Amino acid sequence: MSGMTKREKAARIGEILDGLLGTPEIPLDHSSPFELLCATILSAQCRDERVNKITPALFRMAGAPERMARLEPSDVEPVIRPCGLAPAKAKSLVGSARRILELHGGEVPRTFEELEALPGVGHKTASVVMCHAFGVPAFPVDTHIHRLAARWGLSDGSSVEKTERDLKKLWPPEEWEKRHLQIITFGRRFCPARGHDPDKCPVCSLFGRKGASGKKGK
């Protein structure tokens, strides 16, 4: 299959992902755009499973912007400490809530520009909120997606920004949300960063790049 174009390769990978995974659910538990924003902020350098253990208590305490805005970061920090980076994340949660109240009438904004202006919210977090809360086409790129795009030869691994641009060219906008979730799920179940046997991987066995050692999927 070495003669395939990137677009043809992406189409075949999409067929494999559809057959194995269908359309996975977003792994972060939430019931509103604000809860999704908070959970995504907490997920930085933290497993989604751990975030989901923390957020019920956080959302009971401050699951809406007006309630979060009344708190100080020191009130939030003990609740979210198991997620790591608690001081910075607490400041981001409270600061974002206050900005949402001050500038957006208590509603999570619906544009990339406005979301990325919130404290602690970068492009990936904004992309997660835009596609999963508001249905706007976006392709959030996390570490799983970044490494698999390079491993499969869909991007060169030089930057997350380039990976996002490359993947958006390979699949149509109506597939971006599904592909984002599929690749994350596939990376966790079938294609880990370490201890990976590419010959047994449904995708790497076909498309995995060879590294300096001569082994696929390096």
Description:
By secondary structure, the protein is mostly helical. The protein folds into two domains: 6-24 and 140-207, Orthogonal Bundle (Endonuclease Iii, domain 2), CATH 1.10.1670.10; 33-134, Hypothetical protein, domain 2 (Endonuclease III, domain 1). 60% of the residues lie in helices and 0% in strands. The chain is built from twelve helices and no strands. It has helices at 6-21, 33-42, 48-62, 65-69, 73-80, 86-104, 112-116, 123-134, 143-151, 160-170, 173-189, 204-207. α1 crosses α11, α2 (33-42) runs antiparallel to α8 (123-134) and α9 crosses α10. The longest helix has 19 residues, at 86-104. 37% of the residues are buried. Residues 210-218 have low confidence and may be disordered.
Order of helices and strands: HHHHHHHHHHHH
Can you tell me the CATH topology of the largest domain? Endonuclease III, domain 1
CATH homologous group name of the largest domain: Hypothetical protein, domain 2
Overall average residue pLDDT: 93
Percent of residues in helices: 55-70%
Largest sheet: none
Q: Using the coordinates above, name the CATH class of the largest domain.
A: Mainly Alpha
